[in-house]
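Running log. JK asked me to keep both predictions on one page so they can be read side by side. First protein, sequence followed by its C-alpha cells:
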Amino acid sequence: MDILVAGGHGQVALRLLKLLAAEGHTARGLIRKPAHAADLQAVGAVPVIGDLENDESLAPYVKGADAVVFAAGAGPGSGPARKRTVDLGGAIKLADAAVEEGVRRYVMVSSIGAQDPAAGGEAMRAYLEAKGEADAYVTARAGLDWTIVRPGGLTDEPGTGLVTVSRELGGRASVTRDDVAAVIAACLTTPSTIGVTFELFGGSTPIDEALRAL
C-alpha cells in the first residue's frame, strides 16, 4: 500500500512510518520543513514537502495513495487559532483531498475527551473543540472509510503490543506512543475498524485481537 501520513515528523507519525516501511508499504510523510526530511528517510519513509496549514489543497500529495492518516497537531505551545487551522482545518483538507483523489481509507488520530470539550477545562477546550469538529467532519464526509483513534495519555516507554480498546467514550489511562503507532498500522488492514471511533489505552489484549473485536 501507498500510505500518506500527515504530520509526518510527529513522535507517533515517525514510529508509524517506520513500521509501515518495515512491512513493505510505501510510507510517505507530509512535512512542512525540508530540514526534517532526513529524519523520515532514516526510518525508511519518503518525505513529502507541503504545508498542511497554508496550502489550498492537499490533493497533489494524496494522489496515488491507498490510504491516509491524519497525525498532525498544532502542538501544546500553539494558540486557539492554530488549533483551528491545523487540528481542524488540516484534517478537513486531508479528507477533501482523499475524496477528490478517490482514496477511501482515512485514519484519524484524535484525542480523549473530544466528544465533550467543556469537560477538559479551559486550557484544553480549544484543542478538544478542534478535534471534535474534525472527527465530526470526517465521519460525515461521504466517500471515506474512516477510523477515529483516541489514544490515552502518551508515554515514551517501549511498546508492549498489548492494549485495551473501547467504543465507550470517557475512559482515562495511558498508552505508549509505540503501541499507538502499531494500532494505527493495524487499523489500515483491519476492516472491522472501519466506521468505528474508539479509545486506546495500554492493556492486556494483543493488538490484532483487540481490533478484530471492535
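And the second, directly underneath as requested:
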Amino acid sequence: MSQFFAIHPETPQSRLIQQAVSIIQRGGVVVYPTDSAYALGCQLGDKKAMERIRRIRSLREDHNFTLVCRDLSELGTYARVENVVYRLLRHATPGPYTFVLEATREVPRRLVQPKRKTIGLRVPDHPIPQALLEALDEPLMSATLILPGDDYPMTDPYDIRERLEHEVDLVIDGGFCGLEATSVIDLTDTVPVILRRGVGDISDFEAA
C-alpha cells in the first residue's frame, strides 16, 4: 500500500521531501505534482521502477520517458544544445514544456529513442519537483499520469491514491496542478516542431 504525503505546494516541508527522496532511491515509484499535471517518477536508470511505470500506464516499449531536470545547466548535461536552441530554452525554462533533444552519453541507453538518439527533457516551474530534484541531486525519470483509457491526466490526489495505492510507493498531494500535459517541442533540427500542444505559450517556437 502506498504512502501519502501532503506537501505544501509553495513551501515544501524538507522532512517530507527527504522521505520522498529516500523512497525514490530505494527503487520506489512516486506520484508528484508539476506545473502542468501530476506525473509518475522514479530514479534515473532504475529499470525495475521504469517497467512498473510502463505497466501502470500500459506503455509500449518504444515510449519515450522524460528526464525532469532542476535547471538549464543540468539539462545541458543530458542533451546536446546548440547556441540558438540554448537561447530558446533560456526563455522557456522553467516552464510546462518537454523538449526533444539529441541525447548525450550521460543518458542511460534504454531511455534514448533508438533510431533518432533523442531524449525528452523538461525543467518544471513548481516548488515540489524542484525540491525533490535538489535533494535527489539528479533528474527524475518521469511520465505524465494518464491512465489507460483516460484522455486527461489525473488531478485529485485522493482519487490517485484510491486507484494506484497498490501500484505506486508514494502519492504526493500538492493540491490541484492542472488538467493538461506539457507542450512537446522537437528542437533537434534548425526549425522547432510542435509535437503536442499542451500547457504553455508556444508562440516563440512557432516563430523561431
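Observation for JK regarding the second prediction: The chain has a mean pLDDT of 92.
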